[in-house]
Amino acid sequence: MKLIYERSQAGRRGLAVPKPELPVPEVPPELARSKPPRLPEVAEPEVLRHFTALSTRNFGIDTGFYPLGSCTMKHNPRINERLAALRGFARLHPLVDDDAAQGALELEWRLQEILREVTGLDAVSLQPAAGSQGELTGLLLFRAYFAERGEDERRRKIVIPDTAHGTNPASVTMAGYELTPVRTDARGNVDLDDLRACVDETTAGLMLTNPSTLGLFDENIEAIRDIFHGAGALMYYDGANLNAVCGISRPGDMGFDVVHINLHKTFSQPHGGGGPGGGPIAVRESLAPYLPVPVVTRNGDSFRLDYDRPRSIGKVRAFTGPFGVFVRSYAFMRAYGPALREMSEVAVLNANYLLARLKDAYELPFDRLCMHEFVLSARRLKRDHGITALDVAKRLQDYGFHPPTVYFPLVVPEALMIEPTETEAKETLDEFVEAMLAIVREASEEPELLKEAPHGRPVRRIDEVRAVKQPVLRYRFDEHPAPRGSGERQLEMQRGA
Amino acid sequence: MSYLSLTGADRDAMLAAVGVGSVEELFRDIPETVRFRGELAVPPALAEADLERHVEELAARNAVDEVCFLGAGIYDHHVPAVVDAVLQRGELLTAYTPYQPEMSQGVLQAIFEYQTAICELTGMDVSNASGYDGATVAADACLVAKLATGRTKVVVTEATNPQVRQVVKTFAPGFGLDVVEVPHDGGTTDPDRVRDAAEGAAAVVFQQPNFFGCLEPAPSIAAAANEAEALPVAHVDPVSLGVLEAPGAYGCAIAVGEGQPAGNAMSYGGPHYGFLAARSEYVRQLPGRIVGETVDAAGERGYVLTLQTREQHIRREKATSNITTNQTLLALAGLVHLSLLGPQGLRELGETCMALAGYAKERLQEAGLELLFPEKATFKEFAVRTGRSAREAVAAARVRGIQPGYPLGRDYAGMDDALLVALTERRTVDEIDRLAEALRP
Asked: By three-state DSSP, how is residue B32 classified?
């Protein structure tokens, strides 16, 4: 398929700009543009066709089942799109006086209240732009808390289990902390002996997601809490897996002091091909003074932004955060009400149903009921037929499913991490099971089918190694390398072959 | 209202397959002491029609009918209808990060086209797939500079957006960076002051046009940084880059900015996208997703996330950043907008903004207001003295249905009477005349 630059023809234009009959002031020559940027010159019909064509070469939740573990690819309700686009939100400048933004501020305040209830904590900041930013913000709150107590220099370490998502250790580094890894035991819980050995007076805290990336609820969460709080340390909850426990178990009750919530996971903000998201944090009262500024406050019927927060860590993102994301998540929460618990119950039921039907054909490293996701290993397929988790993933594409997460968490070899979410119908789950079982049969009977998968997508298996060895990171116009292929496959696809 | 398909019959069949008698049993691993019993204390569920009414009522309580001369980093530019149409394509809207490239060629190619557009605008060699916003990408750039130079001091001009500076200072301690500010001189920054401050610095961050709307002596500032072997980082307005020179053409190492003016509604501050582009020698230090071109097993052109060893899911605590979910859909909106404009349209957009700003300056001066920096060339924004407290001026203008601008006294000493007035192509001569009357002392 052509790049939009390859559709460009000199002189074409897609958008006319208003041109008032006024003189244009001159830009001082030393500051003026010397060569125009080579943006595409395309009329509106071609622009729309181009991006429509791109969309047909993409797979979203609207297209089909998307069981990407830890991402919570649930249905994105369409009413939320209508509401986020309302004129009263879309046209609102973030720097208007508070009295001009009462509707927006009330929505933020109400969203905060629901997050407080779901997390079981005391104060909220909606500012962080994604889960990762929430993590970093939370760790900066730790530093502020300990700095006021004269303990920041001593407490340099954050404990993270070996099953943790890569963002956790990356956030530790960005906050200026050091990483202390802790092992997972044979039940899939944090290894308590290992944990006791690595927590001491130099520990600032823990970063944990519960249920873990193995989809397992840590049975020893209370003992973990006692270890950390006993050492004067704090606990951070990675909310990536919150979809399993809304209304069932609250991170604040588990003992966590700071929690981030992924609005694009649990609360249905569409993933957009890689964002936007939202990573608000909820904190215990003792950490509230350090929250990013401004804080949304309520006084009777009126709402305002409080900038008078002398102990705040500062600002992690401009304004109050990604407001359009708040509208969607708030609408989602209001649609469910207290039935957010049922949402989690069905997420967990759906996952256990898949686990029960797949655990014999594949390998289940931890023989327990799962929460909203579970991890299988394709290790037996590799040993017996040379078929890897990657091959399984590529072949699943031919069955019309987005593959699960592969090769994560690192503690499981040939890992397949499956999270169906609550919005899938039973028939979809059954079709997925049939495909996964068919792949096991194909592994022994027709392994080449798997090795060369996918067969039915717009492209064949992508050469990722070449992309690293010969980086081509932008279109180079006349100097752009020509693709090796003849374009014949393109014509085949267009003919519906 | 829920989005669940599950029926009673489904539930019974599934519980039987799992081998438990009830949904409650699925949660038996959770210790009772941390088990939440009872109902969440949240408002009752709403049917879609009721939900719509409730949220519409909230939207109706925001004053969006006042003519908007507010800027200060977020601008009331036109968002073309085609942008909305593309963003509502479900295959793009509801997809995740393209980890499985064969299923995600649409998003991957779009990001590749976006990266190309940002490189063209900024005169740089490589761009990432987006950062969170214009403030966080400035902090990102400082970290890139530290990784590239090994130095820990960064210089930021006072004429850079106050929220950008505040975000940089929030992340600096964790990054192991010290931040030094260079004050402005009459609305712009003196390159000699930059040269002094830049000694031993990893980066010099400056904004063009700056927060006051003034055109900085950008090539000289970049030269001053380069002399001190600090990386010049230009924080730029994408809509200005049809009339203002590309940072890559005057010696900058990195270009960043807030993408909102190109393709995103203001939406009370987000979601938007930050862009970050750099010279090729810094590619390994860049944070965020980068899409590369490659081939598939049949030799056909294809796209894929690449150089992932920089990223958290591979390098973990040694990654260049923790960023995962970024702002892809909003960056895609920017790409669509820029594709509709083309180079000529982008130039005209810049010229229209400047023409309207020129007219506004004239009319306001005729109405008795003084420009704060009368000698300085500006782009689409400028500062005026209102002859009274800026807050009073804002209140008086709002009574007449106009948001006249941003009170600079919120962020800068000695400017309590000053307003920052922004002009976009959505403003008209009529509206400017009304502004002048509303602000007449």
From this structure: helix
The percentage of residues in chain B with a pLDDT greater than 90, rounded to a whole number, is 95
- Beta carbons of A36 and B343 less than 8 Å apart: yes
Mean pLDDT within B11-35: 97
Which residues are CB-contacts of A69 (< 8 A; sequence separation ≥ 6)? A213, A215, A373, A375, A404, A405, A408, A417, A418, A419
The pLDDT of residue A494 is 53
Cα B350 from Cα A32, distance rounded (Å): 11
Using alpha carbons, list the distances in angstroms from residue B253 to B151, B211, B233, B279, B281.
Answer: 15, 21, 6, 6, 9
**pLDDT tens-place string over residues B314-342:** 888 888 788 899 999 999 999 999 999 99
Q: Which residue of A has its CA nearest to B250?
A: A31
User: Distances in Å between the alpha carbon of A220 and those of A98, A195, A441, B316?
Assistant: 46, 11, 39, 26
pTM over 0.95: yes
Is B301 in Cβ contact with A483 (below 8 Å)?
yes
The pLDDT value given to residue A486: 47
Mutation target to probe the B interface, by most B beta carbons within 10 A, among A21, A30, A39 is A39
Total length of chain B:
441
Confidence label for B312 from pLDDT (cuts 50, 70 and 90): confident
pLDDT reported for residue B315: 83
3-state secondary structure of A234: strand
- Evaluate whether ipTM surpasses 0.85: yes
Residue A259: its H or E element: strand A258-261
* A/B interface, count of CB pairs below 8 Å: 718
Q: Which chain A residues are Cβ-neighbours of B103 within 8 angstroms?
A: 58-59, 397, 402-403, 454, 457
Instruction: Return the pLDDT at A263.
Output: 98
Residue A390: how many CB atoms within 10 A of its CB? Answer: 17
Tokens of A9: 């023809």
User: With a cut of 50, which residues of chain A have pLDDT below it?
Assistant: 486, 488-489, 496-497
Contact at CB, B219 and A30, closer than 8 angstroms: yes
Report the percentage of chain B scoring pLDDT > 70: 100
The DSSP-derived string for B178-190 is EEEEE--BTTB--
What is the amino acid identity at position A352?
N
Q: Which uninterrupted H or E stretch holds A239?
A: strand A234-239
Give the bridge partners for B178, in sequence order.
B153
Per-residue model confidence (pLDDT) at position A496: 46
What's the pLDDT tens digit per position in B277-309?
Answer: 999 999 999 999 999 999 999 999 999 999 988
Tell me if A44 and B351 make a contact (CB, 8 A cut-off): no
Residue of B nearest to A489 (CA): B300
The radius of gyration of chain A's CA atoms, rounded to the nearest angstrom, is 25
Cβ neighbours of residue A16 under 8 Å, at least 6 residues apart?
B345
Nearest to B205 by CA among B289, B150, B135: B135
Distance CA B300, CA A459 (A): 7
Judged by CB atoms within 8 Å, which residues 189-208 of B form the interface with A?
A: none
Q: What sign has the CA pseudo-torsion A95, A101, A104, A110?
A: positive
Q: Give pLDDT, residue B173.
A: 95
pLDDT in tens, A344-362: 999 999 999 999 999 999 9
Kind and range of the H or E element at B284? Answer: none
List of residues 6+ apart from B70 with CB closer than 8 A = A93, A95, A96, B76, B403, B405, B406, B422
- Start-to-end C-alpha separation, chain A: 16
Listed in order, strand segments (DSSP E) in A60-143 are: 123-125
Q: A438 CB near a chain B CB, below 8 Å?
A: no
Is the C-alpha dihedral spanning A87, A89, A95, A100 positive or negative? positive
Distances (CA, A) of B225 to B137, B191, B209, B237, B250: 19, 9, 18, 21, 12
